[in-house]
Amino acid sequence: MSIDIQGLYKRFGEFVALDHISLAIPEGQLVALLGPSGCGKTTLLRIIAGLEYADQGQVLFNGEDASRRHVRERGVGFVFQHYALFQHMSVFENVAFGLRVRPRATRPSEAQIRAKVGALLELVQLSWLGDRLPSQLSGGQRQRIALARALAVEPRVLLLDEPFGALDTKVRKELRRWLRRLHDELHITSVFVTHDQEEALEVADRIVVMNRGHIEQVGSPEEVYESPATPFVYQFLGHINLFHSRVHAGWARVGHLRVRVPEYGDAEHAPALAYVRPHDIDVLREPEDGDTTLPATVQRVSSLGSTVRLEVMQTPGGEFAEVEMTRERYAADPLRPGDLVFVKPRHLRIFLNEDPQPVAPMHWHGDGDGI
Amino acid sequence: MRAWSNEHSSRPAAIATTEPAWVRALLLGVALLFLSLFLFVPLAAVFYEALRKGVGVYLAAISDPYALDAIRLTLLSAAIAVPLNLLFGIAAAWAIAKFEFPGKSLLITLIDLPFAVSPVIAGLIYVLLFGAQGWLGPWLNEHGIRIIFAVPGIVLATIFVTVPFIARELIPLMQAQGTEEEEAALVLGASGWRTFWRITLPNIQWGLLYGVVLCTARAMGEFGAVSVVSGHVRGLTNTLPLHVEILYNEYQFAAAFACASLLTVLALVMLVIKTLIQRRARRQLRLTNGEPA
């Protein structure tokens, strides 16, 4: 089922959680709502579910207005961050709950319920846990049971609120791969909320990046990562380096470096910010001809498993930058703290700094999951 | 810096929050002495006095028709007050724990009012409202309804005094549990009524029972508020605590203590039940917080 969100607006007291949001979610996709806490992503999910009501705007399921339908009748499956399993019921009864509460006319027989719950427990690979209480399960098992319970009512849409947020890293990675496989099998339109960019990039077909009640960008994982639409998306997805810059007549200047920016052809001495990812920087021993490199000194070298991270300081100006390179590349020419080098950004993205407030200068690596 | 850390690491066995043995012994001794002087000795005295003139006198005292009437009335008022408070307590706790509404803090304060107000005042409020000279007195009189110096007054006073017990017990429990399980049930298609019976009630059952036990104990033992509205009519408006007072004032010490011992036994039974429930309830709260049982 496709979901169409039109002009949703929601306020809690003075706080605007959603500021006229519109979004189309095509049938069968797995979509991530990604953003820092307080960006409105959970509110959006809860409004889609019918657990919260919007002040303005509509949610359409397959083109039909669902706003007036009670959460009971929307046919959604919802998976809560803290599982919300019924503590006093066995795992089996938890999964069976949605079937047992149906009106008598549509309620399956006991044998049908047993078969269905058995199949769902099979699907989440936990058939052997049917008689346990939720408190006797691990976090990852609880979340899988919560998912089985949500699927029991054969929802047309599956909504997951930070589904892996409360789990430790290893279990989280396993579960999100598993969720992806499950989605490939079932093809239910699914929306999940996360603040973890890695999770969104790995699992989702499409990512909706949200910030302060707005949608910053919608796109495939490659699109949002490779060509962020706004400075916020740049900062939130992956590490970045941030340099102060000035744009004049189609050229941006960062220190001695000059970059062509045709899209800002009519800007005159406008302050701007230049973004570059740590792995999009080359480190050279000698300067190149022209104005494509910046002199810098190596400050720190740290090894991060498969990659090596260098901290360099621009020699005039003193702005720091972070460079990542493969272990092999580093081993070919090991750099030491104090070495004089020339850094060459391969992809430099310039945004005019129209509103200097939101981006703090020198805040050059927003790694996303720390916010 | 180095010297400082060395000095402290030389006593690794001491835990920062543990006091020397003599301090612990002193604290424990003071607590025990206090408890035995003010709680245990009086308790023992009740039973000693009750049985001093022999079992025959004891049995006669508690099977006296007036005593039996008092027991009946005590049980009756508890039997009315506790279920009413049960309904009110669940409704109020539900509203406070699961919804935001204007006047919420006022409601919480009002629930606590009976704890703050002296029971005698509580009784006087009802006399002022329903008594012969009270606001509603003339109207009630015309219609032949008696509240003060009659059973309804006693029941009303008992309800007033016991209002906080169940609500107060449930509010923190329901707040800790949040609304996620109810939301999950609604999303799965359960009606509000069904969600309450299948999800909410099982989750609060032990806290609820605990509140009921406390409420019952208080309802049966209440003296002050009931004394003001009762009028002390023997066989009609005397509850067990009032009966004890009358007997005592008539110098029937053995009988007074015999009836007092009945109340004491009731209280002790309630305490035992309370302790058992508390153990279960604590376990339940742990489960709610997701810790292993």
Which terms would index this structure?
heterodimer; A: 371 residues; alpha+beta; 6-stranded mixed sheet; 5-stranded antiparallel sheet; 9 helices; 20 strands; disordered C terminus; B: 293 residues; mainly alpha; 79% helix; globular; disordered N terminus
Quick recap:
The complex is a heterodimer of chains A (371) and B (293). Chain A has 371 residues and is α+β, with helices and mostly antiparallel strands.
What does this protein look like?
The complex is a heterodimer of chains A (371) and B (293). With 371 residues, chain A is an alpha+beta fold. In chain A, 24% of the residues lie in helices and 33% in strands. Chain A has helices spanning 41-49, 91-100, 110-123, 139-152, 169-186, 197-203, 221-226, 231-236, 327-332; strands at 3-12, 15-25, 30-34, 56-61, 64-65, 76-79, 157-161, 189-194, 206-211, 214-219, 241-248, 251-254, 257-260, 270-276, 281-284, 294-304, 307-314, 320-326, 340-345, 349-352. In chain A, strand 17 and strand 18 (320-326) form a beta hairpin. In chain A, helix 2 (91-100) runs parallel beside helix 4. In chain A, 41% of the residues are buried. Chain B is 79% helix and 0% strand. Chain B is built from 13 helices and no strands. The chains are: A alpha+beta (371), B mainly alpha (293). The interface between A and B is medium-sized, with 26 and 22 residues.
Distance between the termini of chain B: 44 Å
What percent strand of chain B? Answer: under 5%
How is the biggest beta sheet of chain A arranged?
6 strands, mixed
Question: H/E order of the elements of chain A?
Answer: EEEHEEEHHHEHEHEEHHEEEEEEEEHEE
Low-pLDDT residue spans of chain B: 1-10
Neighbour order of strands in the largest sheet of chain A: 6-7-8-3-9-10
**Roughly how much helix do the residues of chain A carry, as a percent range?**
10-25%
**What's the total count of β strands of chain A?**
20
**What is the rounded distance between the termini of chain A?**
33 Å
The overall average pLDDT of chain A, rounded, is 86
The number of distinct β-strands of chain B equals 0
Which two protein chains have the largest interface (Cβ within 8 Å of the partner's Cβ), and how many residues from each? Answer: A-B, 26 and 22 residues
Spell out the helices and strands of chain B N to C.
HHHHHHHHHHHHH
Oligomer: heterodimer
Biggest beta sheet attributes of chain B: none
Uncertain spans of chain A, ≥5 residues at pLDDT below 50? Answer: 357-371
Shape of chain A: elongated
Shape of chain B: globular
